[in-house]
Amino acid sequence: MKRCFSIICVLSILFFLGTMVFPQLAESPWPKFMGPSLHNTGRSPYVGPDSPDVKWVFDLGGTIHFKSPSIDTDGTIYAGSETVLFALNPDGSIKWSVYIPSEMLNHVTISEDQFLYVQTSYHKMYKIDGTTGNMVNDNWPYDFSPFDYTNGVYPATIANDGTILCGTGGRPYGYLHAINPDGTGKWHVACDNNVETLPAIDEVNHVVYTGNNNNQVLKVDLETGQVIKQVSPGGHGYITTHIAIGDNGLIYFTKYTDVGDKKGYIYAYDADLNEKWRTQLGSYWVVPPGIGYDGTIYTAGRYTKKLTALDPSTGIEKWSFSLDSDFNIPPVIDAKGTVYVVTKNFLYAIIPHETYAELKWTFQLAGSGYSQPAIGEDGTLYFLTENGILTALGISNSPPEVSPAGGGVYEINTEVILGGYVSDIDGDLLDYQWMEGTNVLFSGVIQTTGGGTPVELPNHSISTLSPGIHTITLRVDDGIDEPVNGEITVEIVDTTSPSLDPAANKTVLWPPNHQMVDIVVEANASDNSGLPVTLGASISSNEPVNGRGDGNHAPDWTEPVIDQENGIITFQLRAERSGKGNGRVYTITITATDTSNNSTTANAAITVPHDKKKK
Fold this sequence. Notes:
The protein is mostly beta strands. The protein has three domains: 22-393, 7 Propeller (Methylamine Dehydrogenase, Chain H); 401-493, Immunoglobulins (Immunoglobulin-like); 499-614, Sandwich (Immunoglobulin-like). It contains one helix and 50 strands. The strands form 13 sheets. It has a five-stranded mixed sheet, with no helix packed on it. It has a four-stranded antiparallel sheet with strand order 1-32-31-30, with no helix packed on it. Strand 22 (286-291) and strand 23 (297-301) form a beta hairpin.
């Protein structure tokens, strides 16, 4: 009985552990250094500003070194100077601020339950409630000082199981640390020198990659902390800032060296830490990489004053773009592929192409550039300068974008489905209209989502368009900017001939007295377009005009007169026939042609019998 009870307890604990939900990295616009991906790509899911317009600035009241703003799920921006951490609302107003007992060294890392992790110079990591700014005291701050002499705590990330990962420096060892969300240590890996890199996590294979200042890259089991493999790229050097994982599975990192050949490199390794390629970029310090949505690697030799794009599979240069001065901050890539680079003096927005790049805009900094930018859901770009000034760039409101659908070639009277997508970076409620010229076909309202994610429009159908080419306009209005238009072309074709069923007021002429008789024919013609048709008419006879035995009168009919508006055809026929024949048959041939040049022909017969018996 006791054994059964023990087994039940163990199974209950295992079930509880299996169903626990751990606070992962926040799904926010910018929850840590190098963005929202555990692969440290530097990619933003949102589009940055079209122009560098200043929305607001905020003075943090102190200098900063290599810190960058972080952005929470509700749009709160976290940024700190030396010992004060600020939470700012998207409009630049203060939400709260908190004093940190020693200088903050790095970027704020945000968990999905809105707790913040802040590293300081006094070998501590603090946990702060992001909603209130209150310090969490249970097992916090985490103290790294037992791990030899700690002279720095470096950027942190959060694995999907809630484990907090960061590196520290020290003598004789640096460490890669894994910390549980409750502030207890999980495991610690001793390295031969400072671990200044932001680790990259392969969440599928449950491994973490990091590097140290002794020219080593490590692959570590995420659950146990066991070092799976350790390699040295060769020579002397420092592997700092971050490791990145590309969509192709390759591991990218840079190394700088100030001794020996003083050549810095960027490397690509496979998942088992086998070298695939290396590229030297003309400087002993190589800027850590950002990875574009197409896989392109963006990096630079720090003192070459140019941004370089590399092929991710070969490391061969695709293009380079000249800058005003050197830089060492990893680039950021927005959802449209625009690359943002901070130098000492300017913030650049660069549009990449396959073999070249072009400048989108520049913004002159009010102080030295020491911050990686962060892009908010509404497209606002935030960055810090060394003098502690946080700047928000963007425009107060962005116009919507439209992508109408439904163009094409359609048979008349079939349904044309008008649809498509709209988007608005600001998440505005949009009025929309489908129009042909000034005629409004349909209208409605639709709610967009912030950040510019496309939203599908409801479908509208129309089957009353006339034959021809129609330009249909989708007009969208956010009530702030000028309305935005998108156009489609709809061609309506008519391949069906008109209907025609002629009926004459007389079908027999008697007696054959050689007199001209008034005839009226109703064409009974119509077209599926609803538009008028054009009638034509001709008359023929099975007997000659002056044949034997018909009395020798001519002409035997008059030219038909056509009333196109009412579909009436009038003419005269002579009531005569040859006495030697079987009777005369007049054939009235009528045509109806529609506006698409489709034609129908029908005949009406009017007879003059030989004798009264055949009448």
